[in-house]
Specification:
405 residues; 4-stranded mixed sheet
């Protein structure tokens, strides 16, 4: 079984073009301190340039205006784009819109695609995914309490959502609500996905939840007697859990692709600091303790890249990728935390300050360990599948990548 992650010449050229576009076009145009109106005009102008350069929608098929990349090729685009915070947004492959585009492309009917997917693809709209609730564990969507009760030709929705990323800027939401009230909590098949236009009567954006890195667009939403038409059901009644899991698998891996870029940036900064900081008779780079920090980070980053590429290759081949994506999501998120933390340590007080991007990177890295599934949930699923593999075959090989060694 051959495993070759070498990019073909076409994709290597795309990688080069994305890297150049980020470094030569995006970074110089998005300097800090621009007035908000000018800042927004600049970003929209950059999106038009990305379209003109053929660097638009790398994650979507060519027949809907995308670049038609598989997940292995997409990994290098996402990683290059994420060298700057706005890179994925300029290429229109940012979360949560990226995952919502995939979901709509797979689950929506033609009318829904025309109304909701097409504006996302064109960059004329933004979206959010409203699943998490404050009253129940966000990692267990079978516990959702938001209800949708049928009333004639309409559904009446009541509930409470929070940490809904992008809600304040979104034109619509994919909302998960419990429609099968006779199915007990904890069982699948009880929820349904709805498409909700924003604003709508009954949908109230209460606040942006303050996090350790400030107000960043994660909203708390109260839903009171929100009325939705039957035509706003996405993917069929009772399929909310299936739709959510379909959305989250590749989306988790896309996060990992972007996190690898951040980890690499932190490692680059760590090495640069070590080569230029003199202390106690030598450069930091000559000191064994610093070398160990660099070596551990390099080894972890290597593992991150291999795990993401292998999981991506399984998606491209149509194979079951759940275990590999869970492993990658857990490992990459934790590696990001460790690598950024080491970079801060090598920078000393400077790394703790906001004079470098490391402090902000560390705050975002901490979020990575529970976004799209907490560490412990992924560990539980990995263990379950490892035990099941052994019970079924007498070996854990299938649960460790099914690799030929």
């Amino acid at each position: 079984m051959a495993i070759d992650f070498t990019l073909d010449p076409e994709h290597e050229e795309i990688r080069r073009r994305v890297r150049a576009f980020v470094q030569d076009v995006i970074v110089p145009a998005t300097t800090e301190g621009l007035p908000r109106d000018e800042y927004l005009r600049t970003i929209f102008a950059l999106r038009e340039k990305a379209k003109a350069e053929g660097l638009w929608l790398p994650h979507m098929p060519k027949d809907v205006g995308g670049m038609g990349l598989g997940h292995v090729a997409l990994a290098m685009v996402q990683s290059e784009a994420a060298k700057t915070r706005l890179g994925p947004w300029v290429l229109n492959c940012q979360a949560p819109d990226e995952g919502n585009m995939h979901t709509l492309h797979h689950w929506a009917n033609e009318d829904q695609k025309e109304k909701y997917l097409k504006p996302l693809l064109q960059g004329r709209a933004m979206s959010c995914f409203a699943m998490t609730e404050p009253e129940v564990a966000g990692s267990d969507p079978t516990l959702i309490r938001t209800t949708a009760v049928q009333d004639g030709d309409e559904w009446v929705v009541n509930g409470h959502k929070w940490f809904i990323s992008n809600a304040r800027r979104a034109n619509f939401a994919i909302l998960i609500a419990r429609t099968e009230l006779d199915i007990p909590e904890g069982q699948r098949g009880a929820t349904t996905a709805f498409l909700v236009d924003i604003p709508s009567p009954g949908w109230t954006d209460v606040r942006e939840v303050e996090t350790m890195h400030g107000s960043t667009g994660h909203s708390e939403i109260v839903i009171e007697d929100l009325r939705l038409a039957e035509s706003q059901i996405l993917g069929g009644r009772g399929n909310g859990h299936r739709l959510g899991q379909y959305r989250l698998g590749p989306a988790r891996l896309a996060h990992c692709m972007r996190w690898i870029s951040q980890a690499e940036t932190a490692l680059d900064m760590m090495v640069d600091r070590a080569l230029n900081r003199y202390s106690h008779g030598s450069l930091l780079a000559d000191k064994q303790g610093i070398q160990w920090l660099i070596a551990d980070s390099a080894m972890e980053l290597y593992q991150c890249k291999l795990m993401v590429l292998h999981a991506a290759s399984k998606i491209d081949k149509g194979e079951d990728f759940r275990t590999e994506v869970s492993m990658a999501k857990h490992f990459v998120a934790n590696s990001l935390n460790r690598i950024v933390d080491r970079a801060i340590q090598v920078h000393g007080a400077l790394g703790y300050s906001t004079d470098t991007p490391l402090a902000s990177m560390f705050q975002h890295a901490r979020w990575a360990r529970f976004a799209d599934g907490a560490d412990e949930i992924h560990q539980m699923r990995i263990a379950e599948r490892t035990i099941a593999a052994y019970r079924d075959t007498g070996s854990t090989r299938a649960a460790t990548g099914g690799l030929p060694l």
